[in-house]
Amino acid sequence: MPHHQLPLPLLTPPAQTLDNFVPGRNGEALAAARELAAGSGPQFVYFWGPPGSGRTHLLTALSNACAQPGGSVGAVRLHTADDVHALDEPGQARLFQLLDTVRSDSAARLVAAGDRPPARLPLREDVRSRLGWGLALALHPLSEEEKADALRAQLTARGVRAAADLIDYMLSHMPRDMRTLSAVLNALDSYALQHGRALTVPLLRAWLLEQAGKMSPE
After folding, report:
1. At what angle do helices 166-173 and 144-158 cross, to 10 degrees?
2. Which pTM was predicted?
3. Which CATH architecture has domain 27-138?
4. pLDDT category, 218, cuts 50, 70, 90?
5. Are 163 and 192 in contact (CB under 8 A)?
6. What architecture does CATH give domain 142-215?
């Protein structure tokens, strides 16, 4: 069945943090990110995987962690480069310079991400080789079961109960990236509180109809 077209600008996805990153099979990547956030870890880290595997979440979470009081920004200079597989020539030139700058600065770290291993990137050879200088970790998308468990854990953390079939319905009828699913769950929880109703599939359908109405031209 086609996924609902959600008015994503009307949703407020949860902030991407290391604490709400659901590792699944990516425990090693999360551990590496936590090490970097603590101000240590390898000088170069490269995460690669398909869309929805958590690349951008990890890079955003690291940037957010280092920007917080007590974060590692005072100990190391953290640089991030996302979607390096899509860099044009000027972008590759800037990344090349950044890689060399970081290498010459022991207090600097570079975390990059792309959709394939360094050696297979459609980039200049000198950029590819430099991206392979440090730790390269493959990221794996969450399975449907892992996504369901993660969404149920979010509800449990809020002390909220939901109908047994709600999560399965969401996974069957909506975009399956965790950022969208979490945003929908947040919005639905607020909607349920506002209307004094339980979290059920009929409530979700009512909320979706309301959102669709907001998208319709007046």
Report:
1. 130
2. 0.83
3. 3-Layer(aba) Sandwich (3.40)
4. low
5. no
6. Orthogonal Bundle (1.10)
